[in-house]
Every structure is written in structure tokens, then in C-alpha cells.
Amino acid sequence: MLAVIGGSGMAQLPCLEISHRQIIRTPYGEPSGPLTFGKINNHEIVFLARHGHGHIIPPHAVNYRANIWALNSLKPKHVIAVAAVGGIHADFKPGMLVIPDQIIDYTYGRKFTFFEGTEQPITYTDFTYPYCQITRDYILEAAKQANEAVIDGGVYAATQGPRLETAAEINRLERDGADMVGMTGMPEVALAKELGLCYATIAVVANHAAGRGSSVLAIPLAEVYAILEKAMVNVRNILQQAAKY
Ligand code: HPA
């Protein structure tokens, strides 16, 4: 089974023939919403909206542990996370899709591990390569088959939000080596890694990061939503192709 976590601009998956919804309780509380089960191209999919139905849960308040625990309980073959980002690298323009291969964590105060209790043995999870290469290849192949352009690789900077960054913060992230910036990449991918899930992300560039691009004005949010809506058609094409094999 393929699991999809939908982010901003993807609160549902219109190509999904829904069979049922299931509320899953976890030792970490409730996920962002019920899991939606259905089929795309006769292939089983489970979908979870990261920000809940109606996009009500801000990035810092998402129960990442419950979401990942709930999906892991279904033992999916792959988890594809869709996430909006701001483009820092000059090549990462609004509307483009990127499959990141690295991440830097700038978040704080989030529940970021399944191994926090002193009653558990200390567990050091190898995080050298945070995203599952098998899932990355699976997405890249699906994109190729679907004739959708994606950028293979890039460093995702995960910021706390919900405010956007200052121009100076973006300069700093760039100096750190980041190519894109988003608010939900962490701890999601780390939790998936802790449980051994095959997880990778389709990052959708929604805007130029703060202080970048030709606009001297703040990030035009209405434009951002329009770009996301358009790019989600490309994401859906990739997912429809991915569901075939
Ligand atoms: N910054 C942080 N998160 C984001 C952005 C951004 O510019 N765009 C979409 N998610």
C-alpha cells in the first residue's frame, strides 16, 4: 500500500476513489484526521491531510508522532509526503517540484522522537541520509513516466513557523547550504526514519523565499495559493503514475 501525506494545497486527493475513512488512536494522541482509504488505478492508497480537514492545524501544532505512528501501523510500502516550500536556490522557482535528499532542522519545541522515555533503551537512529532512497527513486521514476519535471535533490531547511522568515534568516539558511525552506519537514522525516518507514518528500515550490525573487514586496499569499493549486495537478499526475506499480 502507498501512503500519501498531503500538505498545504492538498487537503484531499481528488483522484482517489474513497472506500472508507478510519479514525486511528495512537499512544501519542490523535492524528491530524481520519485516514482516508481508497484506490487510484486499482492500487490501494491511504491518505492523511497533515493540517487536518479544512487546513486548521498549523505546522508547529501538527501531531507528527501520531500521524507517523498511525501510518506505520498499516505497514505501507512507501510514504510520499507532499509539502509546500519557499525556494532559496535561484533554480527553485515557484511551481517547480523538488525531491529533497537532505534536511537541516531549525525547529524547536516539537515532539520529535518515539524514544524519549528513560524506560526504553537509548536508540541512536542513523540519519545521515534522511530520506529513503528507494522511495525517492520510486517518485523520480513515476515523475519520468508521467512526463512531469522534478528536480532530483536539494537541501530542505525546516523552520518553526508559523511566521515566514526574515530576509536575513533566508541568507543564513543559504549560507548553511539550504536550497528550500518549509515548516513541516521536521520532525516528520526523522520519526519515519525511527520507525524504518520508506519515506520521501515531493516539495512544491510555492514562492520565492523571503527577500528572493524580483518582488521587493512581502510574499504575495494569494499568488502562492494559486501556484500551489496549479502545481498540485502535477503532483497528482505523479501520484497516479506511482500508484500503477
Ligand atoms: N517559508 C517557510 N515555509 C514555507 C514557505 C516559506 O517561504 N513557503 C511555503 N512554505
From TrEMBL:
Residues 3-242 form the Nucleoside phosphorylase domain. The record marks 165, 221 as: Important for substrate specificity. The keyword Nucleus does not apply. Pathway: Purine metabolism; purine nucleoside salvage. The keyword Acetylation does not apply. Keywords: Glycosyltransferase, Purine salvage, Transferase. NCBIfam families: PRK09136.1. Although this enzyme belongs to the family of MTA phosphorylases based on sequence homology, it has been shown that conserved amino acid substitutions in the substrate binding pocket convert the substrate specificity of this enzyme from 6-aminopurines to 6-oxopurines. This is Probable 6-oxopurine nucleoside phosphorylase. It comes from Nitrosomonas cryotolerans ATCC 49181.
